[in-house]
Every structure is written in structure tokens, then in C-alpha cells.
From TrEMBL:
Its EC number is 5.4.99.12. It comes from the Bacteria. GO terms for molecular function: tRNA pseudouridine(38-40) synthase activity. PANTHER family: PSEUDOURIDYLATE SYNTHASE, TRNA PSEUDOURIDINE SYNTHASE-LIKE 1. It catalyses: uridine(38/39/40) in tRNA = pseudouridine(38/39/40) in tRNA. It comes from Pedobacter ureilyticus. InterPro entries: PsdUridine_synth_cat_dom_sf, PsdUridine_synth_TruA, PsdUridine_synth_TruA_a/b_dom, PsdUridine_synth_TruA_C, TruA/RsuA/RluB/E/F_N. Belongs to the tRNA pseudouridine synthase TruA family. This is tRNA pseudouridine synthase A. It is an enzyme of class 5 (isomerase). The active site is at 51 (nucleophile).
């Protein structure tokens, strides 16, 4: 029988979701624990990849388990998983639904702060910047849903069948003191490093090193910049994954470090 697992993880100590040789991945850890529980090799299929140090406040994977589950799998798997991976739900499926290919929307949030804070080091990216041009950053973000081809914001566009992304939402939030920022974006798909490249360019605009017109030129012309501005991985969260048949709320406590006075700008 096929099961969907609804999970979240702090990716700070992992080399991303995807299993890699000689790398410590979230997938490897979960598969090892399931192997121990069922005493047989278990392969899981995730809803997508996340880079090294990237978090997921909502993530899904599916797994086929043939033997009858006559014990409290939810309790056991959470007990033996490390503290930085949590299972929220285990959902039996009635067919061959696919955690990756069936997803119709993914949402990401990128958090950054502009002062050194020892308590945010794993959760938000620190950028020592002052007096960001917030209005111009907002103007750039507002452009994103108007364009579909993100070739200019991908590290390896030619490795993709196409570079079309249906960006449905793009918003920028900040705290009242403008020291905490959250860049939110939703799309049916994302390209390699796309969100971190977009965030890096937003920071360039905020620091007055790039104009909104220059930013839009890359969106409209598909001209790839000579030098990519890629934001740090820390602070990036896969925050929601939606399926035609499954739309669960994310566990917001994963982002409880966030300011309560966020303002959409």
C-alpha cells in the first residue's frame, strides 16, 4: 500500500534532501530508520530536492509498504528520528499517487536579518546591510508573476526541458524596524538555485547596486547575468506543497522565530 508522509526538517546539518554518495542527507536518514522498523530495504520518493542547509517546514514523500502495519508507526518513527526531522502525518493512499510528479504548487520562504543574532544562525540568513531600498525591492518582487520564463535566474538552464515557471505569488514582508525580511514565492515548479538567485538580486537592488529596470531586463530578454548573485542557503524554507487531492496546512511552529509584526511591503 502507498503512504504519503507529511514531514518537516531543519536542514542545517544535512547535505540536502536527496541521497548522495558520501553525503549526509535527510532521505538517507529516514530510509535507514524505516529499514530498521520493517527489517527490509525501504525506498522513499520525495516531493523535490532541497539544497544543503535548506529547511522544509512542509515536505511530503511517498513509500510503498507491502506488509501490514499493525503497530503505531507514527509514534515509533518520531521516537527514533533525530530531533531535526519530524513526521506530522502518515496518510494511506488509495492508488499510485506520486509525491513529486503530482504536486501542483510549491511555496518557498526566504528569511534574512540585518544584524548579528546568535539565535537565528540556523534559521535565517544574516546580511550586514543597512538602509535597504525597500520600495525598490518591493517593485522588483511585483514583477515576478508577470513573467513565465526564468531562464536568466537558473544556474544550468540548458539541463532543463524548459525554463517556464508559473509564478502564482510573490511577496516581500519586513518587520516594522526593517531588520527582518521574508521573501515569499509560489510556483508550479522552480529551477536550480532560482529562489536564491532571485533573493540575491533583490539584495543587490536593496543595496542600490542594481536597478529594477536592469532586473526586469533579465526577465524579459532571458539574458543570463555574467555573475550570479546567489543568496546563502540558510534561511530558505520549502514551506508548502499542494496536491489536487491533498492540501494540508503547514506546521507554522517551524517558523516561530519569525516576527509577529510582519508587514507586506
Amino acid at each position: 500500500m502507498r503512504y504519503f508522509f507529511h514531514i518537516g526538517y531543519n536542514g542545517h546539518t544535512y547535505n540536502g534532501w536527496q541521497r548522495h554518495p558520501k553525503a549526509h542527507s535527510v532521505q538517507e536518514v529516514i530510509e535507514a530508520k524505516l529499514n530498521n522498523i520493517f527489517k527490509t530495504p525501504i525506498a522513499i520518493n520525495g516531493c523535490g530536492r532541497t539544497d544543503t542547509s535548506v529547511h522544509a517546514s512542509q515536505y511530503f514523500f511517498h513509500v510503498d509498504i507491502e506488509q501490514e502495519i499493525d503497530f503505531d508507526l507514527f509514534f515509533i518513527i518520531n521516537r527514533i528520528l533525530p530531533h531535526n526531522i519530524a513526521v506530522f502525518d502518515i496518510i494511506p493512499m488509495d492508488g499510485k499517487q506520486h509525491a513529486r510528479f503530482d504536486a501542483v504548487q510549491r511555496k518557498y520562504d526566504y528569511y534574512l536579518h540585518t544584524y548579528k543574532n546568535p539565535f537565528l544562525g540556523q534559521l535565517s540568513s544574516y546580511y550586514d546591510v543597512k538602509n535597504l531600498n525597500v520600495q525598490e525591492m518591493k517593485n522588483a518582487v511585483a514583477l515576478l508573476p508577470k513573467y513565465k520564463d526564468y531562464r536568466a535566474f537558473c544556474t544550468a538552464p540548458d539541463k532543463n526541458e524548459h525554463t517556464i515557471c508559473n509564478v502564482m505569488e510573490a511577496k516581500l514582508y519586513c518587520s516594522a524596524d526593517e531588520q527582518h525580511f521574508r521573501f515569499h514565492i509560489a510556483s508550479n515548479r522552480f529551477l536550480s538555485k532560482m529562489i536564491r538567485i532571485l533573493t540575491g538580486n533583490l539584495l543587490k537592488i536593496g543595496k542600490r547596486k542594481m536597478s529594477v529596470d536592469q532586473f526586469e531586463h533579465h526577465l524579459s530578454s532571458l539574458e543570463i547575468p555574467e555573475n550570479f548573485e546567489i543568496a546563502k542557503p540558510t534561511g530558505l524554507y520549502l514551506s508548502k506543497v499542494t496536491y489536487p487531492y491533498l492540501n494540508l496546512e503547514a506546521r507554522t511552529e517551524f517558523n516561530n522565530f519569525a516576527k509577529s509584526d510582519w508587514i507586506e511591503i
